[in-house]
Amino acid sequence: MLVLRQKPVPAAGPDAAAISASSGLTANALKAMAMAAMVLDHYAVGFLCEGSEAWILLRILGRLTMPIICLLIAEGCTHTSSLPRYAARLLAFAVLSHLPYTAYFGLDPLQNTSVIWGLLMGLLALALWRQRQVPLPLRVIGVALLAWLATPADWGYITVFWVLCFGCFRQRPALRLWAFTASGVLFYLLPVVGEVLAAPYRFASYGYRLGFLLAIPLLAGYHGVLGRRNAALQYGFYVFYPAHLILLCLLKGACG
Description:
This protein has twelve helices and no strands. By secondary structure, it is mainly alpha-helical. The protein is globular and about 55 Å long. The chain starts with 15 loop residues before the first helix and ends with a helix.
């Protein structure tokens, strides 16, 4: 979806292609899975009865989307040749996606916005955290501010923390997965525990959030291989998000 062009990595030798092919999931494969899961999730919200078996199943699968995209945003921050251009591109598509997102989900456009805004905040938080010349207290304050700015976005501030987890522990895969899991439990599951305990019958409306744990084997299977590169793939992932929301809006209107 929203990962900037990465710098080409030269082949290490005659067997480089074979090594890449056998080194796990590529970024392109992860993006394709994230897009498919996102469409299923958004379809469930707009067309299925909340709490039904099909709704729960598709929403569980939909939890795969954001961990994957946050990982790829962190990778993009590492590989981009121009952070300002990367951030500007995310900002542009956050603006383009704003009205399709709020229209499809029936949200107030003055109080809510799409996940792309949260991803932009995550990118900026990771870029700030890597500025070691900035005093630690200022970096902590900056990250907290960016997390707060991400709260109106779909998925909220968890996107900022996940991008940070994937970026800060990029060279330590096991710790990266532990940090992702811990932050997901702390900032994505625990906030709804009180509501479930107060009204256990509503577990069906919140239990699907456990699906984010299904992303762990997919994240573990990615070893930094981008996959095939061309302009259609690069820009297609950017266009896909607002385009699929517009199509779902049209479909919903036709069915309504």
